[in-house]
Automatic annotation (TrEMBL):
InterPro entries: GSCFA, SGNH_hydro_sf
Keyword annotations: Membrane, Transmembrane, Transmembrane helix
Record bears the keyword Transmembrane helix: yes
Protein name as it appears in the record: GSCFA domain-containing protein
An example molecular function term from Gene Ontology annotations: hydrolase activity, acting on ester bonds
Transmembrane segments: 114-133
Protein species of origin: Candidatus Onthomorpha intestinigallinarum
Coiled coil start-end: none
Residue span, GSCFA domain: 22-256
Length: 314
């Protein structure tokens, strides 16, 4: 007898391998899964505009990358002496606006080249609630702690969620016709929105994503359902009781891997994770012969793994 509700995920016909560049955009849950790809030796770009939560901002980041639409001075706001981008996470900031523009536009340029050759885009939507500048009607990627008199809070419609995703898919495929989209909804509750508004938000995202996937044949991965239904126990949550803990993230990664990643690449990713652990080792005596042997083994193993990865590109 099973004492839990299992979420059955159908195995994908077309598998991801190490020859596929992976771009991940969206909420902080994106960072959890993205770091798994990085540690597994995949060529990965995680949140080029920083952590974003709503579909409008997530899609805008990809649209700008696709078309090389660079940030301009009018795209910036000054908050407490720091310049911040309306389209980026608050971690993109500088006291010098020219420096901020250079930083953000360099990211757009680099990620344009990455996206043009990538195999997969994974989007994680966090909320359907958006913050808009009243003066310009500009949707903010982050409210940046602006004065509440300057911004308006509203919720997207199901159609708006679908339309933003469809427009972005079209733009990305003009740049890279072979790209594949995988959409997921963050299992993290946005409790600051209130329990009712959080539920309305997640429901809107689910309906919008369902409509998008049906009309574009894009993939939906049920990370939300896995956490809400299969891992519905506080032992799978961090101390804030909202974010999935490492055990939950590891489990979701295992399900994702079994669903989407080829057997050969799963084996290679596991070896890359071993390499990562080997590199984290710190010796009590760095001059000892044992530690020198460890460094030689690590170097040889690393070379072997990169050779195996290169063969997949051939």
């Amino acid at each position: 007898m099973k004492f839990y509700t299992e979420v059955i995920v159908k195995e994908a016909a077309n598998k991801i391998s190490h020859k596929d560049g992976i771009m991940l955009n969206g909420s902080c849950f994106t960072e959890n899964i993205g770091n798994k790809f990085v540690c597994g030796g995949f060529e990965t770009s995680i949140n080029p505009f920083g952590i974003l939560y709503n579909p409008v901002s997530i899609c805008e980041s990809l649209n700008r990358i696709c078309t090389l639409e660079y940030m301009k001075e009018e795209d910036l706001v000054n908050v407490d002496g720091f310049w911040k981008s309306c389209s980026h996470h608050g971690s993109f900031r500088s006291e010098n606006k020219e420096e901020l523009l250079m930083m953000t536009n360099d990211g757009i340029r680099k990620n344009h080249d990455f996206l043009a050759n990538a195999g997969v885009v994974i989007l994680t939507l966090g909320t359907a609630w958006i913050y808009t500048l009243k003066e310009s009607n500009r949707v903010l990627g982050n409210c940046h702690k602006l004065n509440s008199n300057l911004i308006r809070r509203s919720i997207l419609t199901v159609e708006q969620v679908k339309e933003n995703l469809c427009k972005t898919l079209d733009m990305v495929r003009r740049l890279n016709p072979k790209i594949r989209f995988i959409i997921t909804i963050s299992p993290i509750r946005h409790w600051k929105e209130g329990y009712r508004d959080n539920m309305l938000s997640k429901s809107t995202l689910h309906l919008g994503v369902e409509a998008f996937c049906k009309c574009t044949a894009s993939d939906y991965f049920p990370s939300y359902e896995i956490v809400m239904d299969q891992l519905r126990d506080y032992r799978f949550y961090a101390e804030d009781m909202l974010h999935p803990n490492q055990t939950a993230v590891d489990y979701i990664w295992d399900v994702f891997s079994e669903t989407y990643i080829s057997r050969e690449s799963i084996a290679l990713a596991n070896d890359f994770q071993r390499l990562f652990a080997m590199k984290q080792h710190r010796a009590f005596n760095p001059e000892s012969e044992g530690y020198r042997n460890h460094l030689r083994k690590t170097e040889t193993f690393e070379k072997e793994l990169y050779e195996r990865r290169e063969k997949m590109h051939a």
